[in-house]
Amino acid sequence: MQLNKNGYEPSAWTRTLTVLSALFLLWGCGKGYGEQQAAPPPPPEVVTVTVTPRKIELTTELPGRTSAYRVAEIRPQVNGIIQKRQFREGSDVKAGQLLYQIDPAPFQVALDSARASLGKAQANLPSIRSRVERYTELLVDKAISRQDYDDAVSAVDQAKAEIEYWKTQVAAARINLGYAQVNAPISGRIGRSNVTDGALVTAYQPLALATIQQLDPIYVDVTQSSAELLRLKRNLETGRLSADRENGKAVRIVMEDGSPYPLEGKLQFREVTVDPATGSYTVRIVVPNPEHLLLPGMFVRALVQEGIAEAAILVPQQGVSRNPKGEAVALIVDDVETVRQRILILNRAIGDQWLVASGLSAGDRLIIEGMMNVRPGSVVKAISRDALTVDGDPPHANRPSGEK
């Protein structure tokens, strides 16, 4: 027999109530636990973007190198000794500016000699003409023979020819004297000098005295695959791309350090032949270069416009993956909140987005977050990316389940 704390034995009725209360509590707890286990889990949350076609400009990035707009190699046109170099290496020169002075003394002497000979020939002509006039009168009276008269007339013609000869000699001597001054044929930046004062130079020698390059504007020569050209023409013919009549020849330049060049170039021409070794052809672009940021031989990239895509589909790259076959796949949410898989054909990457050629349509909801928690056929709760908080991290309630 057990006694309570007051020393009395509990009655049978009290014991019965205690047992029934314990059983009721156990039954109630078991029922609540079973109902909690039977409740279905909520569908996983995913973040989606709605596919919206838009008009974009398609460009092709082509590698190339810069080259001078005009190049002039300075060579002497007469033999002589360099007296003085008249420019500073690496400076800008103007067309007609004196670059080198060749010793002019021998050319001045040749000019003076030719002038003297011309004067002598011109001085002989009047006397020969007077002789012809006298012989004409004597011939009438038959005081001289016909042969003497013909010789006098021929002497006049010879004197005139001699005068013309010495005139050309004077002109040639004057030209050679002018060639003693080596002037710049074009405006531009001149490089280092290959000769110094006192050097002996010869006419049209293989070694150039210096080289002038015009840097403003400057050429950018890029190469493009002939297959790309055919694809571009086909897209224009089928209407997938439309030509931009206003800005179709505008070209943007990216410098070799990745920074954009501030001024736009202009497409000048495409080569008419394809290099059989590489299957590519050259595209030449003219770029303004007033600050001389671009120098000949620099590696650059040119963004050449292909055309305008009126209804292009761009999607974030994070929403596209690859299946075991290497095909591009994406998951979308249909009208009944069910996940569907689409196989895509991608055109190219534009920034952090893919340009989709086929596989998606306007209005499709593409899953970009939460893809690891769902599979095709799963029912999900789709949350539009536009509905998420843009300032800072989105709240946990808006995040797909399983995302941190």
Concise structural overview:
This protein is an alpha+beta fold and 404 residues long. The chain has helices at 12-38, 105-140, 146-179, 226-238; strands at 45-50, 54-74, 80-85, 92-93, 98-102, 181-183, 188-190, 200-201, 210-225, 250-254, 265-270, 280-287, 299-316, 321-322, 328-333, 339-350, 353-358, 365-369, 381-384.
Question: What topology does this entry show?
Answer:
Layout: H1 12-38, E1 45-50, E2 54-74, E3 80-85, E4 92-93, E5 98-102, H2 105-140, H3 146-179, E6 181-183, E7 188-190, E8 200-201, E9 210-225, H4 226-238, E10 250-254, E11 265-270, E12 280-287, E13 299-316, E14 321-322, E15 328-333, E16 339-350, E17 353-358, E18 365-369, E19 381-384
Parallel strand pairs: 1-19
Antiparallel strand pairs: 1-18, 2-9, 2-13, 3-5, 3-8, 4-7, 5-6, 7-9, 9-12, 10-11, 10-13, 11-12, 13-17, 14-15, 15-16, 15-18, 16-17
